[in-house]
Amino acid sequence: MNTEDTLIISCPTILTFDEAAPRAEAVVVGGGVIRAVGTLEEARAFAPVGREIRLEEGALLPGFIDSHSHLSLYAQCRSQFYCDTAYGTVAKLTEAFRAYADARPGEAWLLGYCYDDTGMGEPRHLTRHDLDAVCADRPVFVSHITSHMGYGNTEALRRLGITADLRVEGGSIALGEDGRPEGLLRENAYFEAFRKIPACPPESLPGAIERAVADYNRAGFTAFQDGGIGLGPGAHAILRAYNDLARQGRLNARGYLHFMPPLMDELLETGVWNLPVSDHLYYGGVKSFADGSIQSLTAVLGAPYACRPGFCGDEVASPRSIADLIGRYHRLGVPVAFHANGDAAIEYVTRGFEEALAACPRKVPGHMIIHTQMASDDQLARLHACGVTPTFFVRHVNVWGERHVNIFLGEERAARLDPCGSCVRLGIPFALHVDSPVQPVDAIRSIHTAVNRTTSAGRVLGPDQRVSTLHALRAYTADAARCAALQGRIGRIAPGLFADFVQLSADPLATPPEALEKLSVLRTICGGRVVYEA
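== Amidohydrolase ==
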């Protein structure tokens, strides 16, 4: 290669996450790829006429990989009304939402997101009457923070065809004392309604996705999973937008996309699923749901919810349908990403993978189980034996930990939420994710939570599930790459991998655990190109 086209990057600390050489002084980059890693002297010998950049502070790491979120949904939510729990009461929230609506007289649908009922000072669900107060003559629709429930005003319910006698398999419609829909839609009732809401205009999507990717870059991410395209409206337009951005060189992070089964089947039928798109865009696999969320009481548990004796959650999918879906796509060599929160749902998924492997003993890189909140050690070990990587939404511990203790699960079960420590003891690689738009795009706070496990009240929830900073970092780098089946391309600083880096303000391995959240991202580099600089 022509070393005139190379760049030597040196930094006081370079953490490679490559077992052969875990630390380095310099990296040689050429053509968007890492060419050499070692001492500064070795780098200069490899590229004697290469340009040099000296990063004078902090630490250089592989770019962060978000193993699960919904970037295209987050891209659209950025312009919607954010239902911040800081409003405290429903009255104050709807007043602010009404001001938002008044400022947008031309918007046909008024959309809000991230309403968190148990996080409000007045902990209750929204009703159609609450949202009628926002605007009565236009449809108003709000997604719950879990994205497993939603709320419509009277006009929205009318346009969506929500009636008292409507039955939706795997979902429910709350009825008021008058026997009419109250506004609350759960699980498949919510998803079916959500897909009917007019999507973001196709011409606006590329710009919206670009701006969302910039937020991910700002947080140090150079790769992300978009989990479940086809779950919401405008799936084909989203796919076109991603392809256009990638082909135009405007996708400043590497996206690997997971599709809901109908869209996945369409891609398989047309033969484009496993065709290369670009180094910045990959078609990852199929996504499906084994249950909902603990906070919406739709996760499927092995024992009843603490707040509802005798109730273990409504199943959104049967164990047989879960196993059939896993088996069908596994036989085709398609990576399967299954959402499962409750321990019973995790058991359904675990048995499904075991059955699939027994019937078709092939390796399919990229199988993963998403959230895995209440997994037992036995389930983790069995999933690992099937080649399935768990990815944990560990921010649950900090954001909802107190509520899991006091409302949903009780202390004993809540202490095992997101059992990262169990994975370390069992020798099982795991990943972490931010799950935006459910939570802000922020790897550092997620790493801090995995290491410290402090709740919003300051208590340590499940101290034996804490992990070292090194393991938490691996869960956003080398081990997260497993979820994308891209271990040979991203996640480490080693020759032949993409030149994707994040520069942090200090060496995280030398930072006290309680101070990890104070780290900041100084620079993000994707393919050897700076995509964010503080």
